Request: fold
Amino acid sequence: MLLNTSNPTSIGLPGSVGGAANQLILIAVLVALVAPFLLYFDTARSIVAIWNKSDTYAHGYIILPISLWLIWRRRVNFAALPLDPYWPGLLLLGACGFGWLLARMGEVQVVMQYAFVAMIPVIALAVLGVRLTRTLTFPLMFLLLAVPFGEIFIDPLISFTADFTISALQLVGIPVLRNGTRFEIPSGSWSVVEACSGVRYLISSVTLGLLYAYLTYRSMKRRIIFTLFAIIVPIVANGLRAFMIVMIGHFSGMTLAVGVDHIIYGWAFFGLVMFLMFWIGGYWREDEDKTGEKIETQAAPAAVFGLHVTTTLPATVVRMAIAAVAVAAIWPTVAYFNDKLTYNPRPVALRAIQTTWASVQPFTTWTPRFAPADGAFSGVFQPAPGADADRVGLSILYYRNQRNGKAVISSTNRLVDDRDPLHLMSTSVHGETIGNRALSVRESVLDSATGRMLVWQWYVIDGQSTASNYAGKLLQAKTKLLFRGDDGAAILLSAPFAASPDEARKLMRAFAAANLPAIDAALAAVRAN
Reply:
């Protein structure tokens, strides 16, 4: 039933102690909810820094105000449901904190940010109780959208947009010559880069779609269906946008949609698509009562600042708030002392690799687009003097005292970027047998106007090799939690090829078989220091 109260935020409690007790409850709740922002200040600051740096995530500034507004719309629930602290919530809070600590040890910023933001609804659950928090589930979980997330979708979205655009061009009869995510048509050349991936449209659409579905529909089924459309529609719309941009450029003789107007047309089209999606979705709207979500409750004994209290509740709430702050404070404390004990002030002395192959001149000017390393080695080698066609490039990038912006495994570490003449054709992970050793490598094909090149990449962390970013981060977190530091290295082998990548694979296998022991010895010497 609907709560019938004329003033859900009235102040008043029988007896003179009531007002003071209620103020104590309010203070305790606010302190518990604000504490994570102080305890995890660096993580909170990293979120804001990304909002400032990237327009893709600038919407993060309005997430908290919207969440507070949504909670305010449900303010009647605070007068209708008594606070009932939920002690198992501390276990969930501990799990969030431990997750933050693991991510902190492995320098996985996005996981740290999610763990930090997740603490807010978990603390609300612990302090306010299950019944009251359940009525605020969406406003509290909406806070997670403040975390800058989406880079992982950029490459798949680029591939989809390129596939969609090229298929549409072929469908209308325009011949296309494709080379990875670059393609040529009779009127000119085009390339699908990060800015064309549509990740901005997707993130904006999902954020608006979730909010629209929550405010417009009452049934969970309709909310889920609309949210799915908010995911699918911008992906398809971005493919259409890219196709239309190419068509405008094609029919205008490459005079339109090739500069800043390219972006303007894109956002105008996206705005039209969103308007149509919300307009159509409005036909199935389900209006709700002005008081907000329907709740069933019994008459409350008293309401103070919109909170139902009992004679034993104030002490319970205060104890829970103190416990929540204490649990949240454990993990940054552990991280602080771990950093102090594992920090290694010694410079990285990566010696030259004593290879059995001859050192020769480079066959390319390419270098991996990684963060500056603490120690590096690079060279080009061939099995015997005079065999100019058989050349293998070796790059070793060594990192110590890793942090955001300087890590061996990072989403910003790439083989190439949009400015390079080389561009990435394909990437896959597979196993290689080098002598009697199994080695997992990430294999990439790079292409340019002057030829193609094969690149093998793997990491060495705590003496163990892996080609997986996830496994590498777990290794890094484990070794740092065990107070063994966070040293890690990226190993890259490269070789050119003409007709088939098998030519380069055969040569790199031979180089690895002959020189892996020397590479391992050089890395072990650095770790021993």
About this structure: The first strand starts at residue 177 and ends at 179. Residues 80 and 300 are 6 Å apart (CA to CA). The chain has 15 helices and 13 strands.
